[in-house]
Design brief:
Layout (H helix, E strand, L loop, with lengths): L2 H13 L15 H10 L1 H17 L3 H22 L6 H18 L5 H21 L7 H23 L5 H23 L3
Helix pairs in contact: 2-7, 3-4, 3-5, 3-7, 3-8, 4-6, 4-7, 5-6, 5-8
Length: 194
């Protein structure tokens, strides 16, 4: 089966709405809203793709470990947001994640795997908290959470797919350049220019 067809089919399946037989179902507050939240927020897209790029750049075990750590810790941040636990500087933390992760990709940073996991996990708390606090009032919290974790995972997968291009010199340059572009975008988010 063609890989492109497979990914399009999975995306369509996951983004299809529920039947609107019950009040507040579908896009207004369930799986679809959660799934689309990270995909439609450019600050989230930049950071999530950067996690995948960095994992691809670092290779095994980071290629699978970082994209697993991020959504697991993000779910904790999401629970904090849903519970109303305050977390100062959420928007700054999200923007800073794009800057820092972009710089790490751009420079080809290779810290020990535990350091990379801590960096990724620290930023995941901010992203999860934002998802949790922005949970629509009428939402099914579990369906919304599953949606935002899967949406995040697909963005990580996108970064990993691009990150595997580092096997070739031209690909390595492209990936590191993309990391630089993510860092610049993060600065735009951080300064309010985007």
């Amino acid at each position: 089966m063609n890989r492109s067809f497979f990914f399009v089919a999975v995306f369509m399946l996951l983004s299809s709405g529920q039947a609107f037989a019950h009040e507040a179902a579908g896009f207004s507050g369930g799986f679809t809203a959660g799934f689309l939240h990270p995909i439609l927020g450019w600050d989230h897209v930049a950071a999530m793709v950067a996690v995948g790029l960095w994992g691809g750049l670092l290779g095994a075990p980071a290629i699978w470990l970082l994209p697993i750590v991020f959504p697991l810790v993000m779910a904790i941040g999401g629970a904090m947001g849903i519970a109303g636990v305050p977390l100062p500087g959420v928007e700054v933390g999200i923007a800073a994640s794009a800057v820092v992760l972009g710089v790490l990709v751009a420079t080809g940073a290779r810290p020990p795997i535990w350091v990379a996991a801590i960096i990724v996990g620290a930023f995941a708390i901010f992203h999860g908290h934002a998802h949790g606090t922005e949970l629509p009032i009428a939402a099914d919290a579990m369906a919304y959470a599953v949606g935002f974790v899967l949406g995040t995972g697909l963005l990580h997968l996108t970064g990993i797919l691009f990150g595997t291009a580092t096997r070739w010199n031209t690909g390595r340059i492209a990936v590191r350049s993309l990391g630089g572009a993510i860092a610049v975008a993060g600065m735009a988010f951080l300064t309010g220019m985007a």
